[in-house]
Amino acid sequence: MTTDGSTAPPPSTAISSSTRGATVRRAAAASFIGNFIEWFDYASYGYLAVVIGKVFFPESDSSVQLMSTFAVFAMSFLLRPVGAVVWGAWGDRFGRRWALSWSILIMSGSTFLIAFLPGYSMIGLGAAVLLLLLRLVQGFSASGEYAGAGTFLAEYAPAGRRGLYTCLVPASTATGLLAGSTLVALLHWLLDDASMESWGWRIPFLLAGPLGIIGRYIRVHLEDSPAFQEMNAQLEAASGPSRRTPVLDVLSRHGRTVAIAFGVSCLNAVGFYLLLSYMPTYLQEEIGIGEGISNLLTSTMLCGYISSVFLMGHFSDTVGRRTMLIGACVAFIALSVPLFWIMEGGNIWVILACELLFAVILTANDGTLATFLAESFPTEVRYSGFALSFNTANALLGGTAPFLATWLISVTGSPLAPAVYLSVVALAALGAMIVAPERSDADLTAFIQEGPKSPACTSSH
């Protein structure tokens, strides 16, 4: 019996050759929809930042309102490391499916409730407090999504095509951003400012409710990954059901791997939020591009991202994860400042070309990262190791990226400040990647930790 009462098939017959393709497709759909909802929410919040600032904060300087909005966005990441510990432990003990089916329910529910919040004009600062509370719940539950989906897909995918399959996770995040930016652009086109501030901004958050129910349904009707089923069968055959402590195990036995994974994840955290979430605001506030055009440029960038991420996932299967991730670090170090400087000219077509080049560089990192993190840890602690390293990086550097970018520009007076910040983070990630091992050929199904001296344990370092 599984933890939710259903009966799982024996590991040896869980996925037969005749049904494997259909099962992998269902696993892909289950992984896709949760990340889609998460990033649809982030896109809606980021692209509606100016409107949300006016709704939830007192009238003041527009830059203060904007920084307040991004401060709430950043604070919503405070619970990510806590969520990583909780969801990672649940995912490693009770199963990937169990954790993912609950995380999507809580995440979509908290996002849905944002649509019903009153504004500052009705209850004063209480509106901002309620917004922050729901963002905190959303951040806690979302911390199980990316890591869980990446772990789930990596364990289902054929070894030789693991990078291609697992890059569906970043593709789903970009698709969510694209859907969010497209909807916000459509709302701005259809509604005047007064309508947007009174009710139009609520529409994207309302959509999270039905999407979450659909995602939950898909996940609870899917078998757990072959690697998790095989691990449970071996552990129970050896010593019966055990009360494992995945988070303590991953920190005590795989601390070096966690540190490397955190360092590598920092580039994704800053690059993704800076280039795909904050960019419309940057174009509007620093370069003077109109709201509609800036959102259209970023939507085109997202299309380029989605198109190239699968190609990069395929390349990671061919040349290895280290080569792809190191190449992305070097490209960001060399090109971030020049590309931001070129965009200062304000030519729409030049800006679009720069954004598309940024998208390709970012996918070299993002299309590889989820697979790299899943391959870095043994099955017993894979969810925990992935979630802890990835979400800690996002809590410290990802959620704060729009706020820091706005602050750095205000302090230095230079619109190139975000590019310098991105280059510095890329340099740190490069240092982590240089000492990281190549594990592209790892057999995730057989990679099971048996003790502190076992080959499986030592091989994870």
UniProtKB/TrEMBL annotation:
InterPro entries: H+-coupled_symporters, MFS, MFS_dom, MFS_trans_sf
Domain Major facilitator superfamily (MFS) profile: 27-440
Record function comment: May be a proton symporter involved in the uptake of osmolytes such as proline and glycine betaine.
Location(s), subcellular: Cell membrane
Keyword line: Cell membrane, Membrane, Symport, Transmembrane, Transmembrane helix, Transport
GO cellular component: plasma membrane
Family in the record: Belongs to the major facilitator superfamily. Metabolite:H+ Symporter (MHS) family (TC 2.A.1.6) family.
Single GO term (MF): symporter activity
Protein name (record): Putative proline/betaine transporter
Keyword Transit peptide assigned: no
Bilayer-crossing regions: 69-90, 102-134, 163-187, 199-218, 258-280, 292-312, 324-342, 348-374, 386-410, 416-436
Domain of life according to the entry: Bacteria
Xref: PANTHER family: ALPHA-KETOGLUTARATE PERMEASE
Membrane topology: Multi-pass membrane protein
Keyword NADP: no
Pfam families documented for this protein: MFS_1
